[in-house]
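re: that chain from earlier
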Amino acid sequence: MNILLVGSGGREDALAWKIAQSPLVRRLVCAPGNPGIARHAELKDIAVTDAQALAAFAREMKADLVVVGPESALAEGLADLLATTGIPCFGPTRKAAQLETSKAFAKAFLERHEIPTAGYGVYRTVAEAREALGVFKPPYVIKADGLAAGKGVAISPDKADAEAEIERMLGGRFGSAGAQLVIEEFMDGEEGSLFALCDGQRAVLFGGAQDHKRAFDGDVGPNTGGMGAYSPAPVFTPDLVQAADEQIVQPTIRAMAAEGAPYRGVLYAGLMATDEGPKVVEFNARFGDPECQVLMMRMAGDIVPLLLACARGDVSRLAPPAFKDQTVICVVLAAKGYPDSPLEGSIIRGADQDFGPDVMVFHAGTRRRPDGQLIAAGGRVLNVCAQGDDIAQARERAYAAVRRIDWPGGFSRSDIGWRAMEPRG
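^ sequence. v structure.
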């Protein structure tokens, strides 16, 4: 098979690494890719938002499958364009991707189909949003409606902070993504990420993970795209997973098909484990980042048949995905100043060394200078992933590898996986 992978981050590096292991692959190309992805695939310099050029290149390379990594390509309608050419695409259409690209759409969808989630309101003006704070209790959950690279959510402890966030979001902080915002009831509980592979009519669960959104140790600081993750996550008990599948995942896929937007690809359900059962925090229309990295390392077997079955519209004949018993953890190395103003251009040494069979370093935001030096070229730059018999061993291996990378221009959290290390009631 000829496969085109779209994207340039750590998620796509992990996907390229896993896809390249498949005996079904003849040629793997990634657009635009990064230096880490170049270890596993050819690179083609096409922007992820240039859907027309990506579709044209897929035809040119005679792609048998296109795998879409980032949400921005889905928002540009890449899956829709590929459908007109008959090329199978792992990723939903623009209409189906609204589950992620518009939080207002997702909340209305959940309400319409009585799928458990928090109460909410949608507001377009500062005056409306400020007035609505009287309806909600602190802490206030405020979300930009559109795509904001994982940074468009604020949890404000009091009314003054909430009013400031409303001003920032509706004042242009996230551009058109903040043209309207959603205010939600705060849900008390533990959050996790559950994934399902979908063919438009059915969904097959594909493991769970837990990530760390805050920038600094102790879950403080601004929200980020994710500073680390681990899988499996203890929050996902068998009972919780069964309830989430029956009450959230399967009803969502059936309802999307009934509304004329069959969902193909991976559905990422961000869930809150509340006293009333699992509730939807948000949906994403792609693998999480860095959750994808830990899932790819945990997965046993060939991922390509799963991706192709979703894209072709029939997962019914596939065996359920299998995962290793080991725990995998991912520690994100980010450029200093991330998430607000990351410093680019600093030299990274030691990222390409052999860390042994239990460690992988995926590239998320890197570039090579003409002299071959690896430099930071983004906010989240490297993903140091390690597997172990338990969370403690995986953590030890990951942080040992972090210490071997010479990058004064970067930083990481030192407490990834802390929830899984604590005794649970």
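The chain has 13 helices and 25 strands.
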